[in-house]
Design a protein that fits this description.
- This protein is α/β, with parallel strands linked by helices.
- Helix content is 41%, strand content 15%.
- The chain has one domain: 3-Layer(aba) Sandwich (Rossmann fold), CATH 3.40.50.
- The protein is built from ten helices and twelve strands.
- α1 packs across α7, α2 runs parallel beside α4 and α8 crosses α10.
- The protein is globular and about 55 Å long.
């Protein structure tokens, strides 16, 4: 397949690209264009002549989103509309990458058909983008608690945030260097989720577009865990020094005054059954990530 991928240089995007090229021999096309310009997007798609589109790129700057609401709406919702329209004009399947933060954090194990109820701007913009994707016959792949290797950068982009992204890598990076790591805990942050592996997210998206599927899919593992449980499992899986692991409150500046969903755990059983993708246990996710770090490459298609 020849796949047009936006956001290929990002964490999730680099895993999507890695899965498609290394596991399936796909050709991934990525080019920086003004996604809010419908003509530019249409021209990009016409030039690339892809078999499918995966739209992963976002405005990944919390402060900028809030400072420029019009720009944020355009970067999320209008960009999704532009790629959806371009995909439909070319008569090819397409997939929008979304998030578990479309949920308000009060319901456990949300399913693919649980109605969104976002409580912050990022979740709202993604939920609005999902509506655009549904109306244009695209598929939606919600990523959540994404851990794994950032194939486009040599180092982990950040240490810890109110969500679950990069969480495992942050712990491993610190403890392998003999440095202590304090796991944030508290009701005011994302404290329960269904962690995933970046490469598995790529598997779900590849299966969605390759099969021409529509609807919503969850890129998640089989288990919901707390931050403490994930940290403890990481120490065990990677054989790290448990005495360096600590627990405490997050600094106030970590939230930037925003509301964070507490429990974003989800079920991915429908996704696994529909797409034929694996539903990994937490131990298996950590095992696969450990193998990525040790080999510097992505493993074979997981079963």
């Amino acid at each position: 397949m020849r796949i047009l991928l936006t956001g290929a240089s990002g964490f999730v995007g680099s895993n999507i690209a890695k899965v498609m090229t290394d596991r399936y021999g796909d050709e991934v096309v990525s080019k920086r264009v003004d996604m809010t310009d419908a003509a530019a997007v249409t021209g990009h798609v016409a030039e690339a002549r892809p078999d499918a589109i995966v739209h992963c790129a976002i405005m990944n700057d919390w402060d900028q989103m809030h400072a420029d609401r019009h720009g944020a709406w355009a970067a999320y919702v209008e960009a999704t509309r532009n790629y959806g329209d371009a995909a439909n004009a070319a008569d090819i399947p397409w997939c929008l990458v979304s998030t578990d933060w479309v949920f308000d954090g009060t319901q456990s194990m949300a399913t693919e058909d649980t109605p969104p109820n976002p409580i912050n701007l990022y979740g709202f913009l993604k939920a609005a983008s999902e509506i655009v994707a549904v109306e244009r016959g695209g598929s939606i792949a919600r990523v959540m608690g994404v851990n794994g290797t950032h194939w486009a950068r040599p180092t982990t982009p950040r240490a810890q945030d109110p969500g679950y992204g990069y969480f495992v890598a942050s712990i491993v990076d610190a403890l392998e260097q003999g440095e202590p790591f304090t796991v944030w805990e508290g009701d005011e942050l994302n404290s329960i989720a269904s962690p995933s592996l970046g490469s598995h997210c790529g598997e779900v998206m590849r299966a969605a577009v390759a099969g021409g599927h529509t609807g919503i899919f969850h890129c998640a593992g089989a288990q919901a865990v707390s931050r403490r449980e994930l940290a403890e499992a990481t120490v065990s899986a990677f054989g790290l020094d448990r005495s360096l692991l600590h627990f405490g409150r997050a600094p106030a500046e970590a939230f930037a005054g925003q509301t964070i969903p507490h429990d974003t755990s989800v079920s991915a059983e429908y996704t696994a059954a529909t797409l034929g993708t694996p539903l990994h246990s937490l131990d298996r996710i950590l095992e696969l990530f450990k193998a990525e770090r040790e080999t510097g490459g992505i493993g074979p298609t997981p079963t």
